[in-house]
Write a structure and sequence with these properties.
InterPro entries: Epimerase_deHydtase, NAD(P)-bd_dom_sf
Catalytic activity: UDP-alpha-D-glucuronate = UDP-alpha-D-galacturonate
Subunit structure: Homodimer.
Order of helices and strands: HHHEHEHEHEHEHEEHEEEHEEEEHEHHH
Radius of gyration: 31 Å
Structural class: alpha/beta
GO molecular function: UDP-glucuronate 4-epimerase activity
Helix content: 40-55%
GO cellular component, one term: Golgi cisterna membrane
Largest sheet: 7 strands, parallel
Shape: globular
Strand content: 5-15%
Mean pLDDT: 86
CATH class of one domain: Alpha Beta
Bound molecules: nicotinamide-adenine-dinucleotide
Length: 440
């Protein structure tokens, strides 16, 4: 019988080979995990870099208003010499003793019209606006385009950007500020109260802080509102009537603005004039206002809600045409006295004023609709309902004697004439698609 083959040698060899394989494979594993680790690290770094560049803070609430501010307000940081040149050029007056005016809210309805009027008479105008999305920003962009044709530059930025404001005051010696930037609209305050606090209170204070530190300090004319009369029942509304019963947060922030203005006048010698506008309307107007969305809805065949008061009376407004308001703003600027502070300190008592700028003839909203029907040649589908408690007041009526006495303010446009201009401009100049594409 043959003896079994001697396998002891091959077994040793096999063990040796398997040992070598294990060492190699663990070396390979170690090497490949190093490569893998480096690749992961690299990818992570690329991702962190990418997200840092594109990071947008999440809105604090679903009603957050979008502004391009985070990315662009500080357009000035990268703007450099060209940006400064535009700022200087736009704000340089072209008439002897002309003003140099910073118009905040220049891409807004009233801001655009005032900027045009000031530039037309030879004043220097620099705009500031954050182009927020409270209403379709493409309308603000369209206004900006028109202003640019007249060499009016709008700096894109927020009232709360102190660095930007200080920079503007470093570059330009503003003789005046026409402060119109604000969160407007009465009803929206129930949806997004913070936006009113940010723009109408914090933003206003920020502007006043920068203005008080400027040397020389500018004179400031700013937009308050007829809404401060709130639940006041005396008619017509006079500047001497009580304004301590606001019916909306919007009104409360405007009233707060009036008190804040008092403080900055008292402590720092800033010359401050507040203007209480009464339902301003006209070409390039605001899509959130009744005359604007009624026009849109009537043309689209939609039913419009017409409010009556809790006591079944007609709701009425002292509708004021934009050209009259612009004249009032310019009258206030022309009669504004210089601020008296310097180095942040008051040197003498300074001017502090408040004026109504209205039309002095309230019109029921039903009448507004019938004027629109005849101008558009379309019958409106109406739904009359009780006014909800959303901040609206039943009636406004301005007494403008004070503005007349101090700067000759005299409204001259009745509602039919003004609406005719609005409709004509809406249909032709403003490109009516802006009206029609607005969401209901
Ligand atoms: N239109 C009216 O009937 C009426 C009535 C009473 C008072 N007002 C007041 O008049 C002023 C102008 O009103 P409007 O009708 O032209 O409104 P608007 O909304 O068309 O204009 C305001 C502009 O300010 C800008 N803005 C808002 N917050 C800003 C911020 N924090 N920083 C920079 N820009 C900001 C907006 O983008 C907008 O372009 C407002 O202060 C408003 O409260 C208007």
């Amino acid at each position: 019988m043959a003896s079994p083959p001697d396998t002891s040698k091959t077994t040793k060899l096999d063990r040796y080979h398997s040992y070598i394989r294990r060492i190699n494979s663990s070396k390979f594993l170690a090497a490949s995990s190093k490569v893998l680790f480096r690749v992961i690290l690299l990818v992570a770094l690329v991702l962190i870099f990418f997200f840092t560049l594109n990071y947008h803070p999440l809105p604090e609430n679903p009603h957050h208003i979008h502004t391009t501010q985070n990315l662009l307000s500080s357009a000035f940081h990268g703007g450099g010499a060209d940006w400064e040149k535009q700022v200087r050029h736009s704000s340089t007056p072209r008439r002897p003793k002309g003003f140099s005016v910073l118009v905040t809210g220049a891409a807004g309805f009233i801001g655009t019209h005032c900027s045009f009027a000031l530039k037309k008479r030879g004043d220097g105008v620099l705009g500031l606006d954050n182009f927020n999305s409270y209403y379709d920003p493409s309308l603000k962009r369209a206004r900006q385009k028109q202003l640019a044709k007249h060499e009016i530059f709008i700096v894109e930025g927020d009232l709360n950007d102190a660095e930007l404001l200080s920079k503007l005051f470093d570059i330009v010696t503003f003789s005046h500020v026409l402060h119109l930037a604000a969160q407007a609209g009465v009803r929206y305050a129930m949806e997004n109260p913070q936006s009113y606090v940010n723009s109408n209170i914090a933003g206003f204070i920020n502007l006043l802080e920068v203005a008080k530190a400027a040397d020389p300090q500018p004179s400031i004319v700013w937009a308050s509102s007829s809404s401060v009369y709130g639940l006041n029942t005396k008619n017509p509304f006079s500047e001497s009537h009580r304004t301590d019963q606001p019916a909306s947060l919007y009104a409360a922030t405007k009233k707060a603005g009036e008190e804040i203005a008092h403080t900055y006048n008292h402590i720092y010698g800033l010359s401050l004039t507040g203007l209480r506008f009464f339902t301003v309307y006209g070409p390039w107007g605001r899509p959130d206002m009744a005359y604007f969305f009624f026009t849109k809805d009537i043309l689209q065949g939609k039913t419009i809600d017409i409010y009556k008061t809790q006591g079944d009376k007609e709701v009425a407004r002292d509708f004021t045409y934009i050209d009259d308001v612009v004249k009032g703003c310019i009258g206030a600027l022309d009669t504004a006295k210089k601020s008296t502070g310097s180095g942040g300190k008051k040197r003498a008592p300074a001017q502090l004023r408040i004026y109504n700028l209205g039309n002095t003839s309230p019109v029921p909203v039903g009448k507004l609709v019938s004027i629109l029907e005849s101008l558009l040649n379309v019958k409106a589908k109406k739904h009359v309902i009780r006014m909800p408690r959303n901040g609206d007041v039943p009636f406004t009526h301005a007494d403008v004697k004070l503005a007349f006495k101090d700067f000759g303010y005299k409204p001259t446009t009745d509602l039919t004439t003004g609406l005719r201009k609005f409709v004509r401009c809406g249909l032709y100049e403003m490109r009516f698609h802006l009206l029609l594409k607005m969401p209901s």
